[in-house]
Design brief:
alpha/beta; eight-stranded mixed β-sheet; homodimer; 409 residues; 14 strands; four-stranded antiparallel β-sheet; Aspartate Aminotransferase, domain 1
C-alpha cells in the first residue's frame, strides 16, 4: 500500500491555490537539464554570447560610483534614468513612451502578474491566443479568469474569431497577445491583422496587453508597427531586457496610461516593494553605452543560424505529414504532428533518447495541444540542434511504425 | 472650475484594485527625501557601512567564474547553495531549517505577497498586531481579507486578546507577527508570550507567519527563541538579507512545510519566474565568507549608538506627556502623543521644519494611530537624529501651546 503524507494545511489554502500543483512535465525537465540531453525545451537566451569583460566593466563602475544607491531600497516605479533608457529601447521599434508612464518590473513576467492583479476579477473573461504563452496563463490564472481562446495562423491571431466572439456577447476584460515571433507559435501578426485588432478593441473599449519580448530579434523581413504605436491609449505594453541583454538582471517593464499605471506601481510595491537597484543601475549603464548594439547584432546572427539549422534538420528528419512554423525572429518553432501522436505521453521516451521539447498542452488552458510541440533554437549550438532533431525524428519514425503495425495499416 | 481627467479604464479595474490610490503621505515623502530634511521616516538600512571593496570583490568573482549562470534564468525556488546559506543564517538564531523547505523571494515583501496569495480568500480573517507592519497590510490587502487586530504592549502581542477573539468565534486563516524589534512598535515578544502564542495556535490549528527581518540586530539583552524553533510544523518563517547585508540584492525567503512550500514556489514562478541569479550568487558568496560577521558587528554598534542618540534626544525635546518604546534592537521607536495631536495632519508642518516621520495611521487598517508616529534611527547620523528630534520637539511644543491657547487651558 502506498503511504500518504497528509498536508495539515489542506483545508486552509485559498481557492486560487487549490489547483497549484507541480506537473509531471516539470519532473521530466529536471532530468532534461543533464548535459547529455539536447534540450529544445526551455526558452533560454544564449547569454554566453555576452562579452563578460564588458558586463564586468559596467558592474564595477556601478559599484565604484553608486554603491550607496545600488545596495539600497529604491522607489517602486524604478529610477527615472532607467525608465528613460527603456523608453529609448521602445523607440528602437518606433514606439514612443513617456518614462512617466512606465513602471520597471521583475522581468515582463511580473508585469503579467500585476496586470492580472489590477484587472482580473474571478470569472472575468481574458482573451488569449491559442496557443498562448504559458507564463501569461500561469500569471493570469491566479486571478481566476475564464480564458477565451482565439486561434492563430501564419499571420498571427485570427481577429475575425475575436470579432465573432464579441458579437456572440463575450466581453473580455482585455486581449493578451504576443504579436512578434510568438511564444510558442513562432508566427508574427501581419500589419493588416494589427490594424484590425487595434480598431476592433478601440471600438469595443477592450484594452490590449501587448507582450513584446522578442521584437528586436528579427532575422529577416521588415519590422512591423507595435500595437502600442498604433493606439497608445488602449494598449498596455510589456517589454523586457531578458532577450536583448540578460534575464539575470530581472528587468522588464510595463507602459500604460496614468490610471492603470498608478495601480500597477502600487501593486508592484505591495508585491515586492521595489526591484534590485543594483541590477537596475547595471541595466541603465549597459544601455547607456553603444556596445549593446554590437552585442545584440551578434546575437541576432547566432539565432538566425540556429533557426536555419533547426528548419533544415526538421525537413530532413521529421515525418512528411508533420508541419511547422517558419519564424522570422525570436526563439521558437511550433510543430504539429499527425493525430496519432501524443506529445505529453511521448516526452519520457524523448528524454530517454536524450532530447527534450515542450508538449503543446501547456499552452492551451482547455487541454488541446496533444499533437503539438514547442522547439526552442536559441540555446543549443547548430550541431546540437541538428543532433536533437535527428533523435526526435527517429523517435517519431519508430512511433509511426508502431502505430501503423498496431492499426494494421 | 476644476478640470477632471477621466480614466477610460475606471470601470475595468478588479475589485481588489479599486482601493489602490496613492496617499497624501506619499506625496510628502518625496519632499522629505531632500537632503536638508532629516528623515526619521523611511526604514532604510545604513548600507554606507558596507565596505564597497569587499562587495566589489564578491561581485567580480561571481562574474568572472559564473557569468553564464549569473546572467541566465534560474529555478523558481532559488539555488540549493544559496538556500543552504540562508538556512545557515537561521541557524545563527538557533533555528533549524531544511534548505529543501525554503524558497528564495524578492525580499521578504514578496514572501508576504505569496503567503497572501496562497492562503487568503476574500473575506478570510487574518490576525495582525496593532500596530502592524504596513508592508504586510498592503501585501495581504490585495487578497481582500478582514483584519483582526491584536494589541501590543512592551512584551509584544497580547496573546490573551487573540485567545478571547478565538473564544468569540473568530477563525483567522493565519496569525502574522514580527516578534523581534517590531516594525513599527520597536517592542519584542517575551519568551512567555512566544510559548503562549505557539501553544494557542497549535491547539487551534491556525498557522503562524513569523516575519523576522531584524532578529540579528540585537543591541542588548539575551536572544529569544524564534517561533519557528518552538513549533516548526505550524510556523511559516520569513527572513531577508536586507538588514544584515543589502536590500539592493532583493533576497528574502520563506520556510514552510512541504504542502505550503510547493504552492509558494508555484506562486513565485507565476509572479516573476525566478529571482536574479546574479544577486543571488552575490548573496551566496557574501555569506560564504566570514567578513559578513565583522560587517554585521560594526553595523549593530552603529545602530545601537543611533538608538541611544534618539532616546536621549526624545527625553530632552519631547513633551513630558508623550511616551515611546525603548527598542533593544532593530530600527524603530514608536511614539504615542497626547490626544490633541494628530500626526497625519502634522506631517506637512514637520516637513516645513525639515524633519519627517511616519504617521501612525498607516499601521492600522481601522483608522487608529492619529496620536502615534514611527521614528526610524537606522539611517541618519547621531547628530542628524538629535537635530531631527529637536525640530520635531519644537513643533510639538508650538502645537501644544496653540492647543492650550485655543482651548483656554
Amino acid at each position: 500500500m502506498a503511504e500518504f503524507n497528509v498536508d495539515p494545511y489542506a483545508d486552509l489554502y485559498a481557492r486560487r491555490a487549490s489547483g497549484m500543483t507541480a506537473s509531471e512535465v516539470r519532473a521530466l525537465f529536471s532530468v532534461a537539464s543533464r548535459p547529455d540531453v539536447v534540450s529544445l525545451a526551455g526558452g533560454m537566451p544564449y547569454v554566453q554570447a555576452l562579452p563578460t569583460e564588458h558586463v564586468l566593466e559596467v558592474v564595477e563602475s556601478v559599484l565604484v560610483e553608486r554603491a550607496d544607491v545600488a545596495l539600497q531600497y529604491g522607489g517602486g516605479q524604478g529610477s527615472p534614468a532607467l525608465r528613460e533608457r527603456l523608453a529609448m529601447l521602445m523607440a528602437e521599434e518606433d514606439t514612443s513612451a513617456d518614462p512617466e508612464d512606465l513602471v520597471v518590473t521583475t522581468g515582463a513576467q511580473q508585469a503579467l502578474d500585476l496586470v492580472g492583479k489590477v484587472l482580473i476579477d474571478p470569472g472575468d473573461v481574458v482573451a488569449v491566443e491559442a496557443p498562448a504563452y504559458v507564463g501569461a496563463l500561469s500569471a493570469f490564472s491566479v486571478y481566476e479568469p475564464r480564458f477565451l481562446q482565439v486561434d492563430l495562423d501564419d499571420d498571427g491571431m485570427i481577429v475575425e474569431q475575436l470579432e465573432e466572439a464579441l458579437l456572440r456577447g463575450e466581453r473580455p476584460k482585455f486581449v493578451y497577445t504576443v504579436p512578434n515571433f510568438h511564444n510558442p507559435a513562432g508566427v508574427t501578426m501581419s500589419r493588416a491583422r494589427r490594424e484590425q485588432l487595434v480598431a476592433l478593441c478601440r471600438e469595443a473599449r477592450i484594452p490590449i496587453v501587448e507582450d513584446n519580448p522578442y521584437g528586436m530579434l528579427r532575422f529577416d523581413g521588415e519590422p512591423l508597427p507595435t500595437l502600442r504605436s498604433l493606439d497608445r491609449q488602449n494598449v498596455i505594453y510589456l517589454g523586457t531586457v531578458s532577450k536583448v541583454f540578460s534575464p539575470g538582471v530581472r528587468v522588464g517593464w510595463a507602459v500604460a496610461e496614468p490610471g492603470v499605471l498608478q495601480r500597477l506601481v502600487l501593486a508592484k510595491e505591495a508585491a515586492d516593494l521595489c526591484g534590485s537597484q543594483f541590477t537596475m543601475l547595471v541595466t541603465e549603464r549597459y544601455f547607456g553605452g553603444e556596445l549593446w548594439r554590437r552585442n545584440l547584432g551578434a546575437l541576432v546572427q547566432t539565432y538566425r543560424s540556429r533557426r536555419d539549422a533547426m528548419l533544415t534538420a526538421l525537413e530532413e528528419h521529421f515525418p512528411s505529414d508533420a508541419s511547422w512554423t517558419k519564424p522570422s525572429g525570436g526563439f521558437f518553432v511550433w510543430v504539429t504532428l499527425p493525430d496519432y501522436f501524443d506529445t505529453p505521453a511521448l516526452l519520457a521516451a524523448a528524454v530517454d533518447r536524450k532530447v527534450a521539447y515542450v508538449p503543446g498542452t501547456g499552452f492551451y488552458p482547455d487541454g488541446r495541444g496533444r499533437q503539438q510541440m514547442r522547439l526552442c533554437f536559441s540555446y543549443p549550438t547548430e550541431e546540437r540542434i541538428a543532433e536533437g532533431i535527428r533523435r526526435l525524428g527517429e523517435l517519431l519514425a519508430d512511433e509511426e511504425e508502431l502505430f501503423r503495425s498496431l492499426s494494421g495499416a
